[in-house]
Amino acid sequence: MSPSPAATPEWQMTTRARKSFIGLIVGAVIVLLAGSVWMTYDEQIRQDPGLRACSSFARRAPVELTEPEYQRLQDMFARSTKASLREHGVRAIEAAMTARGPSMVAVVRPSNAEAAALRAACVSEGALPR
């Protein structure tokens, strides 16, 4: 026999309330764990925009870009959290850009010195193999 509601002390939870409370606690723990996993991924694993841009620009061959592509590449280097990539990437893009024709196609042709400095920065940050 289960005790009647009048016999249950006021401070004691019913079975249904206890299950709800435990579910609330388990849900809160799951949300906290998911948040900490996402923060770890976001801060440490997700690739820096400058590192992604390294693979597309560190080669010495000329690259033809439309104006939006050029702006996107420059912004990727400018938003990098790595100081060396930010410095060498933005400098290499600005020094290497030559506009061509009315279509606003940018031809990015880095000099040997700029490309070598950017490649060295990309290698030191681990974006490119040695």
Number of helices: 5
**Assembly annotation:** single chain
The side-by-side strand order for the widest beta sheet comes to 1-3-2
Terminus-to-terminus distance = 76 Å
- Structural class label: mainly alpha
Q: Determine the mean pLDDT.
A: 78
Unreliable runs? none
Order of helices and strands: HHEHHEEH
Total number of distinct structural domains: 2
Radius of gyration: 28 Å
- Give the number of DSSP strands: 3
Helical proportion?
A: 55-70%
What kind of sheet is the major sheet?
3 strands, antiparallel
Principal-axis shape equals: rod-shaped
Strand proportion, as a percent range, falls in: 5-15%
Keywords: Membrane, Transmembrane, Transmembrane helix
